[in-house]
Amino acid sequence: MAYACGMRRFSMLILAAALAVSAARAQAAPPLPPAASTAGTAEALTPAAAVELALAGNLSLARSRVDLAAAERALARAWNGAAPGITLSAGARRSSAMETITLSGSAGISVTLAPRTLHEIRKARAALDAQTLAYDTAARSLELEVRKAYYSLALARENIAVLRQSLATAQKAYDQAEAKRKAGLASELDALSARVNLENLKPGLESALTAYETQKARFKQTLGLDPSAPLELAGSLAEASSISKIELPVSFGDSPAVATLRASLESARVAEAAARSATRSPSLLLSGSYSPQSTDSGPWKDGGSLSATLSFSLDSLMPWSAAREAADKARDAVIKAESQLAEGIVAADISRESLRRSIEQSLSSLQARRLTVEMAERSYRLTEEAYAFGTKDVLSLQKAGDTLQEARANLLKEAFNLVSALLDLEYALGLPFGTLGR
Fold first, then answer.
1. How many CB atoms are located within 10 Å of the residue 193 CB?
2. Could you tell me the residue range of the domain that residue 126 belongs to?
3. Of all helices (H) and strands (E), which one includes residue 111?
4. For 330-355, what is each residue's pLDDT tens digit?
């Protein structure tokens, strides 16, 4: 009996020494994959700074600025229909019968006044308003895309951290199993199982690292950065994972989709007014000319004329005329735009309500995920202690580690779902981004 107790103490001493040696050797076989190194000395990028970079360097938004400048130019030139027409001419004529030379000159000016000119200005202004809204919507959509991509990249980075921690845990489990095998307290199968579990985690980490680099390259393209530029994120999902309550605003503006539909309706109404005016509005032509003449260097004789012409097309009054058909089509466009706006308002309300429910669900799930992580961490520590004393096998330790990894990953995913839903709701409500998550 005393001999058996002595051998047990001796085995425990051997196990303790082996564990100490394995802990001291950080590169005990097989080693962990190295962490991804960061090129250069990149300053950590915040979400707000990422948005500023995208607004300044995104190529798609730059094309929208070109369209906006074109609409501004069109409005500035919309008065061209009322601009006067000016003509100048000079000539000389020689008569062979009378041996005389006649010099002449002419200057003329004409102005056409018609209601369509005012309607063209209104159409150009409505087009500018619509293009301004389109640019603002494009900029806001880009900000939404950048912020969601930012936190998606943060999620990928933190998932990599979870995988690294799981790999370190598996490495530790393998070192313990190997030490116990050498001390005669565990079978070779236990050590082999721990090594297989360790090796199976490495391809997943390598795949996550590759996907992270690809995702980072696309994010740089969105920001308008050079592909070789270093990029590090300052933000994380830790703050989102601690959110427990969201205060939704009582009043809010139109969603970008509804605002765009309102602008389209206004443009359709302006086009209809112009088409209706063309069927019943006359046009006034004012013209004047001055034509002096001189024969054989004699005195100049003044000549010229003034005229005013009021014209009205009777054809446009006929129900089968092209002008009436254009007016009827313009009215149809207004009716369709009104229907689309009504449908868009209902769809926006449904979308906002759906996002609200999604946020409430994420808040509830986050609370459960946090408790699950706490329980999984406690369970793993207890299992690890039990395994060290020999009351749990290596399979139980691996299962506890897998459960902890899954709990942490689920917490991160739920935090990202909450951030994504908050951003979508802020976009739909027309609120500044970051308002609801404070």
1. 18
2. 50-81+114-281+316-429
3. strand 100-113
4. 899 999 999 999 999 999 999 988 98
